Automatic annotation (TrEMBL):
Peptidase M16 C-terminal domain mapped to chain residues: 211-391, 690-867
Signal peptide: 1-25
Species classification: Bacteria, Pseudomonadati, Pseudomonadota, Betaproteobacteria, Burkholderiales
Domain Peptidase M16 N-terminal: from-to ranges: 54-172
Pfam families named in the record: Peptidase_M16 (PF00675), Peptidase_M16_C (PF05193)
Gene3D superfamilies: Metalloenzyme, LuxS/M16 peptidase-like (3.30.830.10)
Keywords: Hydrolase, Metalloprotease, Protease, Signal, Zinc
Database matches in InterPro entries: Metalloenz_LuxS/M16 (IPR011249), Pept_M16_N (IPR011765), Peptidase_M16 (IPR050626), Peptidase_M16_C (IPR007863)
GO MF terms, alphabetically ordered: metal ion binding; metallopeptidase activity
Keyword check for Transferase: no
Origin: domain of life: Bacteria
Name of this chain's protein: Insulinase family protein
Length: 938
């Protein structure tokens, strides 16, 4: 009865909405877009703004944001980088929380520092992020107290600011130098101030600033007329509004406020180019930037229609670039175009490409020519129809999922509304409006808008960013300018559109049958055995009304192949996927599936063959068809294979030049004595050795048969309606006799103390990696204890190495106990730091580990981890992804899947003493790898 009432109420709401929406012919273009009825927006007498939305996903949790319209562009000359320092100081002492008390308190109620609790500083804004578990009643008021303290209650003690100086310097060092970024922003925004006011500041400014400059920034810009609080989550809006009034209503601004001025972004006067050489770049890129346009959101019906047309032509243009990237001799590896807001009051059109073996010139030519082709000839009717379908499909998903969207996602458009003035009509209104509006948008309108957005002859900025070593060298500035000028002057024919079929399968396979069925009521799962031996596990849920997730696995994988086939097996699935299905190349397949929210992919991992797929509820049959075709109708294409090799070879060249990639590869080699079966960093020459026939043969060897496959489906479906589809598409899969057990190839870590130093890169920073490994029998409870030990060590990294000693900005421990191919425990620490601090960081980390063995974790730290895990677990129980991964893991490990219902009890059973024993068992100071990455200059 309750469900029927809810459905009736929802239907009535839609009827009211549709009846309230005037016929398209009656819509006044100047009429303002409505505010979504379930969003409360208000402003207090002091100018403080608030947004409130009740949202039940996840339950018993709030997402709070404090948004400040102040960032680095407002810094005075002696304040460069101090908007960001002010953000850091919000976690270092306030009226109600002494230094470090805030983070400790929030951790005690289940909030994880970094992953949950965080903040960021931009050019024009600072945003504080506080997810708040709603456990005890006092925690709700205390959460708002945190926001209030951030807004106008920071202590900003001189000594605390001095302590934080080392941490922000370490953060800047970790992110690399700022010279390239400074030049890029100054050019792109055509305003030197953007280059001089990078949010991170400079090494010089962070060394030189006075604490008083931080206090002045806080006094000047943290004021009610420049602030908003965002409240989204499981709360009565009236209660939220009372808390906003209580905590922010008495906040006073300065008597003589400084004017809040936004920087201008003037148009380019002439074509320009910038070449940025950076040998640590993971890929080489070019960007073509068109002049910035003054732009304020037009929150009228006409403005919404114009925005819709813009989305249509930019999506069609990006698809054209994607199709070019899949051509036989592509001008780039990847390309895209977009028009977006870049700063308050301005938007910009940009085209980007990741470069292939041809370098910058063909990419610049292709990007500009495709923009020119769209300007001169427009798009085709078929392209527009596909774009309409995709846009409408996305709007429908947002509408049908509107009550199951995570609160953190709901908060994002509210932040943009405050910062940029964007409208908030809501997914229900947008869906109904689009149903009326989209069919009436004409091809002529879209083509006219595209031509207006890309006027002929306007000045452009061409930017190259990447390496200047390897086969492809960085271009000169003159070469970029010449390529851009020549591309715009080239005669271009209109695009010729090919017509594609409307369905994947004209003839359906002969169905198999369901030979056995069992139901686990406690877990809510149904297990089916099909006539071909395939096993299917089904868990219907109501967590997302438009989501079905599918996974599949079978033992085997790369472990069945020897060293000669290592790279072919490793890449077979991605190479074959890159050639399409049946007679369709990948882009052609995308056109056939336009407007459908569906995907299906397969993979050959180290120990398994895997299937990963997803669909909206209406596209489940299409998803199963795609899975069936991945097994039965892979496509072979010599041109696309050659294109794939060329692209990956170029990416490998760039990747091999990066310090992090080389460092990781060296660690792996040191750990395993350069074993020939290790999955090492692929070199460009490795791609030259790949042969299409052998790659395709390996794919067929592993996917021409579904023998011993287990498939898991989780999401919004009815089991009885799904059964005939499963019998048709999975029950009909061939099951030839092939090996279906992975092979333990005997790859084991070296023993003893291994120390290695790698000298790469020019930045004045180092990276330390410590790895402790040993063989160990597997159990789920022991695996959980291993992970828990890593988590309490992460708390200590922040407390001791960051806050107490100022040795690093960030670092992490990870811990994992694996069952396959043999029982192995692995602890590792990743510790980026200043090159001069390496001995101190290693010594401090080893001291933490020794104390963990001697004393075990602080019970308060363990309680923080357990509280966070329990709250995360309770949320995960309402998530399809948790159930898909958990069920696959249980079946693959041969575990009882009922363990997924016992995590809370297992977490509660972890004790400080049990973690002390874990540390003693697995952290051996005579058996570990210590690798250090140093700058190239010793």
């Amino acid at each position: 009865m309750a469900i029927m009432k809810l459905r009736a109420a929802a239907a009535a709401a839609v009827i009211l909405l549709v009846s309230a929406l005037p016929a398209l012919a009656e819509i006044d273009p100047a009429a303002p877009l409505p505010m979504a009825r379930d969003i409360k927006v208000g402003k207090l007498a002091n100018g403080f703004t608030y947004y409130i939305k009740q949202n039940a996903k996840p339950e018993k949790r709030l997402e709070l944001r404090l948004v400040v319209k102040a960032g680095s562009m407002l810094e005075d000359d002696d304040q460069r980088g101090l908007a960001h320092v002010t953000e850091h100081m919000a976690f270092n002492g306030s009226n109600h929380f002494k230094r470090h008390e805030l983070v400790s308190y929030l951790q005690s109620i289940g909030v994880k520092f970094g992953a949950d609790l965080n903040a960021y500083t931009g050019f024009d804004e600072t945003v504080y992020i506080l997810p708040l578990p709603l456990g005890k009643k006092e925690d709700l008021d205390k959460g708002f107290q945190v926001l209030e303290d951030w807004a106008h209650g920071l202590v900003l003690n001189d000594a605390d600011i001095e302590s934080e100086r080392a941490i922000v310097l370490e953060e800047l060092r970790l992110r690399g130098g700022t010279r390239n970024t400074k030049d890029l922003y100054a050019k792109r925004f055509n305003n030197e101030r953007y280059g001089d006011r990078l949010p991170s500041g400079t090494v010089e400014s962070l060394h030189a600033f006075a604490p008083e400059a931080v206090k002045r920034f806080y006094r000047d810009w943290y004021r009610p007329d420049l602030m908003a609080v965002i409240v989204v989550g499981d709360i009565d809006p009236a209660e939220a509004e009372q808390l906003v009034n209580k905590h922010f209503g008495k906040m006073a601004g300065p008597a003589a406020p400084r004017p809040r001025i936004y920087a201008e972004i003037p148009p380019y006067a002439a074509n320009d180019a910038l070449v940025q050489r950076y040998n640590e770049a993971p890929s080489n890129t070019v960007t073509i930037t068109y002049p910035a346009e003054p732009h304020r959101p037009d929150n009228t019906m006409a403005g919404y229609r114009a925005q819709l047309i813009e989305r249509l032509y930019t999506s069609m243009l990006s698809l054209r670039l994607a199709e070019l990237a899949q051509s036989a001799n592509p001008p780039f590896i990847q390309g895209s175009s977009a028009r977006s807001t870049i700063a308050p009051g301005y938007r910009m059109f940009q085209s980007n490409a990741v470069l292939g073996k041809g370098g910058a010139q063909p990419a610049v030519t292709a990007l500009i020519q495709e923009n020119e082709r769209a300007r001169r000839h427009g798009f085709t009717a078929a392209e527009l129809e596909r774009a309409r379908k995709s846009l409408m499909s996305a709007a429908e998903v947002r509408y049908r999922e509107r009550d199951t969207i995570n609160s953190a996602s709901v908060a994002v458009p509210l932040i943009r509304s405050f910062l940029l003035g964007e409208a908030l009509p809501g997914p229900a209104y947008e869906y109904e409006f689009l149903k009326e509006l989209l069919p009436a948008v004409t091809l002529e309108e879209v083509n006219g808008a595209a031509a207006k957005a890309l006027p002929s002859g306007q000045p452009k900025l061409a930017v190259y960013g990447g390496s200047d070593r390897g086969e492809v060298r960085a271009p000169s500035r003159d070469a970029l300018l010449a390529a851009a000028a020549a591309a715009e002057a080239t005669p271009l024919p209109p695009l010729v559109e090919k017509v594609y079929g409307a369905s994947l399968m004209d003839t359906l396979p002969k169905p198999g049958s369901i030979v056995k069925e069992s139901v686990n009521q406690a877990l809510g799962i149904t297990e089916l055995s099909l006539s071909n031996g395939v096993r299917v596990v089904l868990k219907p849920t109501s967590f997302k009304t438009q989501q079905v997730l599918m996974g599949g696995f079978r033992p085997g994988g790369q472990s069945l192949y020897d060293a000669a086939d290592l790279h072919s097996a490793r890449l077979a699935s991605s190479i074959v996927a890159g050639m399409g299905l049946m007679d369709y190349a990948p882009l052609e397949l995308g056109k056939v599936l336009a407007g459908k929210s569906v995907q299906a992919a397969v993979n050959i991992s180290e120990l398994y063959e895997n299937v990963n797929a997803s669909a909206g509820t209406a596209e489940v049959e299409t998803m199963l068809q795609l899975v069936h075709l991945r097994f039965t109708r892979p496509r072979k294409d010599e041109n696309l294979f050659a294109s794939y090799i060329a692209k990956q070879r170029e990416l490998a060249t760039a990747r091999a030049a990066t310090s992090d990639a080389v460092f990781g590869d060296k660690i792996t080699g040191a750990m395993y004595n350069d074993h020939p079966l290790l999955p090492r960093l692929m070199q460009p020459a490795d791609y030259d050795k790949l042969k299409l026939d052998r790659v395709a043969e390996i794919y067929r060897e592993r996917f021409s048969s579904a023998k011993d496959f287990t498939f898991v489906l989780v999401g919004s479906f009815e089991v009885d309606k799904l059964k005939p589809l499963l019998a048709t598409y999975l029950g009909s899969l061939p099951v030839a006799d092939i090996p279906t057990a992975f092979r333990d190839r005997g790859v084991r870590p070296a023993t003893g103390l291994i120390k290695t130093d790698i000298y790469r890169g020019s930045e004045k920073s180092s990276r330390i990696n410590l790895r402790f490994t040993s063989e160990a029998p597997y159990s789920e409870d022991e695996a959980m204890r291993v992970r828990a030990l890593a988590e309490v060590l992460n708390i200590k990294l922040v407390d001791v190495l960051r806050d107490e000693k100022g040795l690093l900005y960030t670092g992490s421990f990870t811990g994992k106990l694996s069952k396959q191919p043999y029982g192995q425990v692995a602890f590792s620490a990743n510790l980026p730091c200043a090159s001069g601090s390496v001995p101190k960081v290693i010594a401090a980390t080893m001291d933490l580990l020794k104390k963990m063995q001697e004393q075990g974790p602080d019970p308060a730290d363990l309680a923080k981890v357990k509280t966070n895990w329990i709250l995360s677990y309770r949320r995960a129980l309402q998530d399809n992804g948790f159930w898909l991964n958990g069920l696959q893991g249980a079946y693959a490990n041969g575990s009882d899947p009922a363990i997924l219902l016992r995590d809370e009890q297992r977490i509660a059973a972890i004790t400080p003493e049990s973690l002390r024993e874990v540390a003693k068992r697995y952290i051996k100071f005579d058996n570990y790898v210590q690798a250090v990455l140093h700058p190239e200059t010793k």
